[in-house]
Write a structure and sequence with these properties.
Length: 391
């Protein structure tokens, strides 16, 4: 069959035709070469677009096929049997895409000048490879969840973070007991065991948010994903839970720097979600939140006096939200010895050879100028030293 017709036969993978590489490849394959200038334009347009991803057309096609969201895949992850027609269409389309993955400049309808940029190909088996992908879909995911592991919500849509925080667990010093509790709960989630919502509470700069992001980076290959939710987006959480409930991956809905003012309407919304509505009872989603406030709500003395005839009940309601988290982990500021141990470890990591007395004296002075002894203060101090040290 002519290469120019192959892409037009796609049904299950028709969404690939929205990608610029496929669009430009389609134009190139359809060009009969009668107009040399037009042909060269189509050729270079395609190569330029391919090069923005890779110089290997086979690897590009394999990646986009494996990450594609399609009807067959949806039926599989929802435990619905795919009809024989759909299964047959899947196999035929995989063979079509495999054939396209072998195209070289010499296979084009018009002779291609050797002076034009070339691309590479490799041998791939999409039929068996796709079957393996489906068998491991709980770790690899599909669609945007296959290509990325951290996300945000914008205009009620889940969008990938193009440049996620690269923080790793090895980058975090101290707080081993606290980190291990979060890790244990996360591994329970990944292993299909009961996992609870977690509140990481403590002083600013103690590594609460970094811990969550480092854990996601650590276990992304096992099927863990993070979706960051802003406080103004709490009303979207039930919809997100419903949308993600049948997804084979595991999700952390992450709320950073959580706190409320008195009378904040978002308080009741989050409380209802944490109490467990019918939509929230899923085995693949947990909520992790960080806060500098133990009880999450800023209560003023004026609010304590008030005119509520059931004042005690109102105050209990105000401080009850944190109790809705199954696990509350406190990140306290380190004492002097723990702080200096973090400083020493970071200095060693950066290859600094400053005398310990000088290093520690500067670290203490930096802590006084900052928000006190915290891992963040230690990190900033060492980074400043490293930036001004000539090796």
């Amino acid at each position: 069959m002519q290469h120019s017709l192959l892409l037009h036969r796609l049904v299950l993978f028709r969404g690939l035709l929205d990608l610029p590489v496929y669009q430009k490849l389609s134009l190139l394959l359809a060009d009969d070469g009668t107009d040399t200038v037009r042909f060269i334009d189509h050729y270079t347009d395609f190569v330029a677009e391919l090069y923005s991803h890779t110089d290997n057309i086979s690897e590009y096609i394999k990646k986009t096929v494996y990450e594609s969201d399609n009807l067959y895949l949806r039926q599989i992850v929802e435990n619905k049997p795919a009809s024989p027609h759909i299964t047959s269409a899947l196999n035929e389309e995989l063979k079509i895409l495999e054939e396209l993955s072998r195209i070289t400049p010499q296979d084009l309808p018009s002779p291609c000048p050797e002076s034009l940029p070339q691309w590479n190909t490799t041998t791939i088996d999409l039929v068996s490879g796709y079957a393996d992908r489906m068998a491991n879909i709980h770790r690899t995911g599909y669609g945007i969840f296959a290509a990325h592991h951290m996300f945000l919500v914008k205009d009620n849509q889940i969008l990938p973070l193009r440049y996620p925080d690269p923080q790793t667990l090895d980058d975090l010093y101290g707080y081993e007991a606290e980190k291990n509790k979060v890790i244990a709960n996360t591994l329970a989630l990944l292993n299909g065991k009961p996992a609870v919502n977690v509140l990481l509470y403590g002083d600013a700069g103690t590594g609460k948010s970094s811990t969550v992001k480092a854990i996601v980076n650590e276990y992304a290959s096992l099927g863990l994903r993070l979706i960051e939710i802003k406080k103004s987006q709490f009303e979207t959480i039930p919809t997100l839970i419903e949308e993600l409930a049948s997804n084979p991956l595991k999700f952390i809905l992450f709320i950073d720097d959580l706190s409320f003012a008195e009378g904040d309407g978002d308080f009741a919304a989050l409380k209802a979600i944490l109490e467990g509505s019918a939509a929230a009872r899923t085995k693949n989603i947990v909520i992790y939140a960080t806060s500098n406030r133990r009880h999450l709500v800023r209560v003023t003395f004026r609010g304590r006096e008030g005119d509520d005839i059931h004042l005690n009940e109102t105050l209990e309601e105000t401080i009850s939200l944190s109790a809705r988290f199954g696990l509350v982990i406190t990140f306290q500021k380190p004492d002097r010895d723990a702080y200096l141990e973090i400083v020493s470890s970071l200095a060693e990591e950066h290859g600094l050879t400053i005398p310990q007395e000088t290093l520690f004296k500067g670290a203490e002075m930096h802590a006084l100028r900052s928000s006190g002894r915290t891992p963040r203060a230690a990190k900033h101090y060492i980074e400043l030293l490293a930036a001004n040290t000539t090796k």
